[in-house]
Design brief:
alpha+beta, seven-stranded antiparallel beta sheet, six-stranded antiparallel beta sheet, 5 helices, 24% helix, globular, disordered N terminus
Length: 309
């Protein structure tokens, strides 16, 4: 069996995320990563599964111990993500939610920057003056080896069959729709996708993942006045803001809208464009979300949006 190089990445310390849920780790975590190109994965399946797993982690306390986390079989995807903690519960040093969120984010960025989306295995390590401690392991791998639909295809996104609202003399049009949350029927958002202002699928996926990860250190019931995120390559940014003092806009609301936007609008409708969302609770607007190209992305944008399929 071929051996593949181990890539060591200095993962952002959990202490750099200002936690509002309790103590933070003062030990620097690292993630030694092994890639296996013989086991390819589809990028969109990795992004979607990672976003769902980080969202689930964000609903838990930032410093809560984690013994096992898993996300798989989403929409028939051929990918499974597993985080495993082998340490006994009585051990004073434990894998925590903070470590899991950081590790998933860094692992997906590593795959994005590699030559191929493929199986990834990683040991989650903490390094201190006393030496290295393994907290757990992360794997992103296919459920089935070499399925017929496996591959790393990048294709041109096709416009969905939808009626767009034309904006005269601007060279763009807007497609709008309304999404109501299935778990909280009070929460809904109206999205406006700006057709003609494309953002790469990679940048949209990573900026949404980063936005949810940025909210994770906070209590989901805490008020969210504003939340910002930018994709690692700087191609896209997200700004979420509360718009009223009459209704409490929370980090839980922000993460829920981000998840629904990606899974119910961006991916199924191939809306790889700038998007503006009005967020409502009981039909009263209490927040806004803007997903924008950065200045450099706008300078380099040409032709149709490219979506990772």
């Amino acid at each position: 069996m071929a051996l593949y190089p181990v890539v060591c990445i200095h993962v952002i310390s959990a202490s750099t995320h200002h936690s509002h849920r309790g103590r933070t780790s003062d030990i620097q975590p690292q993630t030694p990563i092994t890639l296996d190109p013989s086991k390819p994965l589809r990028p969109i399946e990795v992004f979607d599964t990672a976003i769902a797993l980080v969202y689930d982690a964000a609903q838990r306390p930032w410093d809560e111990p984690v013994h096992f986390m898993q996300a798989h079989q989403m929409k028939g995807y051929n990918v499974v993500m597993i985080i495993y903690n082998p340490r006994p519960p009585e051990d004073p040093i434990q894998l925590e939610v903070s470590h899991c969120v950081i590790a998933i984010l860094q692992a997906v960025i590593t795959l994005t920057h590699s030559l191929v989306f493929c199986q990834l295995k990683s040991r989650l390590m903490l390094y201190s003056a006393d030496g290295a401690t393994q907290l757990g392991a992360l794997s992103i791998e296919p459920l089935r080896v070499n399925p017929a639909n496996a591959g790393n295809n990048v294709t041109i996104a096709q416009e969905p069959n939808a009626t767009a609202l034309d904006i005269p003399n601007d060279g763009v049009s807007v497609e709008s729709g309304r999404i109501r949350d299935q778990l909280d029927l009070h929460l809904s958002f109206k999205y406006h996708s700006i057709i003609g202002k494309p953002i790469t699928a990679k940048d949209i996926s990573l900026v949404i993942l980063d936005a949810i990860a940025s909210a994770a250190p906070f209590d989901m019931n805490a008020e969210c006045k504003e939340l910002y995120a930018i994709s690692p390559d700087g191609g896209a940014a997200i700004v979420i803001e509360s718009t009223t003092d009459k209704i409490n806009f929370t980090y839980g609301n922000a993460t829920r809208v981000l998840l629904r936007l990606y899974q119910r609008v961006v991916v199924p409708l191939k809306r790889w464009e700038e998007t503006w969302c009005e967020i409502f609770y009981d039909n009263q607007k209490f927040g806004e979300l803007r997903m924008l190209r950065t200045t450099e992305a706008m300078k380099g944008a040409r032709g149709p949006t490219r979506a990772i399929e």
